[in-house]
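During data preparation, a discrete fold description was generated, and the record follows.
___
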Amino acid sequence: MRFQLTQEQRALRAALRQLLDRRFDGGARRAAVERAAPALDRALWRELGAAGFFALRLPQARGGVGLGLPEAVLAFEDAGRALLPGPLLATHLAAGEVAGAADGSVVVAAVDAGGLVEWLTQADAVRGDASGAVGLRSVDPLTPLHRVPGARGTADPVAVLLTAAEQLGTAVRTCELAVQHARTREQFGRPIGAFQAVQQLCARSLVRVEVARAAVYAAAVTADPVDVAAARLLADEAAVRGARDCLQVHGGMGFTWEAEVHLHLKRAWVRTQRAGGVTESEEALARDLLAEGV
């Protein structure tokens, strides 16, 4: 299946990338990582709100942008590509329900289906009961975590799909980084991309990206829960395995704080636990396959 973005969708992507390149470049990312404790950039958050990031799917009659799920997927893909921190998903889903969420003046955290809460201490409002939340040691320095013991539920398919979109963004970025490094890093007098083993790592990453992209974009169009579950599994695999392969291409350089490669892997790991986790998507897909008699 081949997807062509509309002129409006391309303009949306270009505007968001311009904002992220200007406000959250490599220097800003390193500064955020080096802080003693994660702190949300409220000015950037308000800029995202003013750009319509949180109100993309909110009807114009209610002060939103009036676009749909495909446009939200594109926005979250680019947020994942940029490693943008913060409770983006919770605030986006709260637009129209929590006053100030749509324009970025209010930061919203949420207790997800597995009891996981991102950025709880930085939030102005919380969706769900976060009483008794326990702090967790997060592998991602830009995603502080809490867990609410005993909290269980079924993940919202939109939350699952937008998580998959962020994972797709990570997969795209790590594939780009691997190819760039393979072209410029030299060993034994020639670029390491000339070696077959490195070529295979990059090629496998690209294949996973394109398969995941097709699945995520298709699910954005159909909004079918089974399509969403399949997209989430493929995007998780593309993000985690792509980041691992990118690290292998970079070697020890990929683990340095100056590099963003290891941050993508850590964020991808955290996202695999979000919105019901991988297990819930696997079970949803298995139930559908059994119902079809496959």
Q: What stands out?
A: The beta strands are 108-110, 116-118, 125-127, 134-136, 145-147, 186-187, 190-191. The chain is about 55% helix and 5% strand.
